[in-house]
Amino acid sequence: MAVSRRDKADFFTKKAHSEGYPARSVYKLEEINAAHRIIKPGDTVLDVGAAPGSWTLYTHRELLKGRGRIVSCDLNPLSLDPIPPTVTEITGDAFSREIRARLVAEGPYDAIISDAAPMTTGNRIVDTTRSEYLAEQVVMLSEEQLKPHGNLVIKIFQGGGEQEVLKTMRGLFRKAKAFKPKASRDDSFEIFLIGLDKY
Ligand SMILES: C[S@@+](CC[C@H](N)C(=O)[O-])C[C@H]1O[C@@H](n2cnc3c(N)ncnc32)[C@H](O)[C@@H]1O
Q1: For 69-104, what is each residue's pLDDT tens digit?
Q2: What CATH number is given to the structural domain containing 146?
Q3: CB contact at 8 A, 39 and 12
Q4: Residues with Cβ < 8 Å from 100, sequence gap 6 or more?
Q5: 86, 106, 128, 171: which could join 157 in a potential S-S bond, CB 3.0 to 4.6 Å?
Q6: Euclidean distance between CA atoms 89 and 69, whole angstroms
Q7: 1: CA distance to ligand 1 center in Å?
Q8: How far is CA 21 from the centre of its chain?
Q9: How many CB atoms lie within 10 A of CB 114?
Q10: Which atom of ligand 1 lies nearest, measured to the CA of 53?
């Protein structure tokens, strides 16, 4: 029997909840890290757009194995209870002057991961433009705050400037590519840009 898109989504959501994760997005990071080895135990990691907290929790449990540090920033608070001991939570706009300064004070980082997304309006041009802005801001932050040999993961909505962002990343990393995880919904126009081994 064919599995519908909705059944597949429900399956991942239920699996995430049964494993203690607040959102199904955890399986995208799992796939990205399995393919590209972004984070290793002992790393200092910045998670931008971290709420409700699945990527942060997965990083703490499975990638850092409790060894290292995660700075998790979002407009909204994490919904993890308790907050893992490796996590420093910073609530606010990652690109405002005040919050950016706090992120810089916690750096530099071995890896920056960003699943940040704008509130969608349904207008594809507006949504992709806002997503592109977030992605560009994360690239600028990583230019400054990612250590040499560091790795970057950024979500961006396709149809905007993803090729331009990738071009910028090719100047900053020895390897840069686009990646669409299988766990990403079939009807989602998100894609992830991966930068490996910063110059
Ligand atoms: C898809 S959710 C992230 C899910 C998260 N990776 C997880 O696994 O739980 C996108 C998040 O980006 C955040 N976001 C959007 N713009 C932001 C900004 N300027 N600064 C910080 N967070 C932002 C939103 O508040 C939202 O929580």
Answers
A1: 999 999 999 999 999 999 999 999 999 999 999 999
A2: 3.40.50.150
A3: no
A4: 94, 141
A5: 128
A6: 11
A7: 36
A8: 15
A9: 27
A10: 9
